[in-house]
What does this fold into?
Amino acid sequence: MTIHVSVEKLRWYCSEILKKNKIPEEEAEIIADSLVDANVIGVESHGVTRLADYLKRLENGIIENRTNLEIVKENVTTTLYDANNGWGQYAGKIAMQNAIQKAKKNGSAIVAVRNSNHFGTTSYFTRMATEENCIGIAMSNASSLMVSWGSKEPTLGTNPLSIAVPTNEHPAILDMATSNVARGKINLAVKNNQNIPEGWAITKDGEQTTDAAEALKGFLLPLGPKGSGLAMMIDIMTGVLTGALFGKDVPRMYDDPEPQQLGHLFIVLDIASFMDMDTFKQKMDDRIKQTTNSASAEGFEQVFMPGDIEQMKREDRYEKGIPLTQAIYEELSELGTPFDLNIKDIKM
It folds into this structure.
């Protein structure tokens, strides 16, 4: 059974739950916005299903309720922040805002964060850059739950990467994990009592599995040797370079009772520093047409640019509401009940 809820009301509902759990209003609103935005673009694994997991970490004292963001080092084009075990979404937004500001003045900027936590969808931040006519790049390391290509021992995270480019219409946005699938999708499959496709994960003994519960006990598989190599490079740039934890030292979000100390990296390129903005967007129109007007292969009705499908979902869900499974709907209801928040009030 699927229940459709209002985008705006779901954002308010999640924000209220976070505030009732003593998270500052500004941070609560950013976290809620990030979670709901993931559902809006169809990335349910990083959406409101994460709220209960976040609050469990807060209750267990594994994450701070307030983010004390400190500048460790800074110059005209770079900043390194320490999030001091605060909220990844808040630290990420402040860091990206800083990168955009520096890039607008100097042509480009790189801003990093260390000692942070899970920050949601990577495209949440790169989209911010496109709104300022910049190209945004963001990446993060993650819990060591993925094996390197050819290994059965986890020494990598799924380490996501996003690149977003402004156009005359909606941004072109790539947002990908370096695994075959984000672990959150397996966690969501467990909550919804579903199996997973073969090739997503292996058991703790290194065997292929379609059992989501067994997969959670085991490890994720990389997106082939290229995904494995890309994950390694992202781990170096976000973990080693920033002074965060990296590789097999990063605690597991759902299983280890200790701070993750993740690293994030944000890169912004000011397009006007390279060419006239109108000229760039005209060239992007041509680039988009080359892709979307190309002949589709057998079995495909249309060829899309990165971000097209997510944009269609965004438009549809703002109109018709966000679909939630019964399990996630009930989980959210339980989170709101102690604070007299009625989940029925946010239904379409």
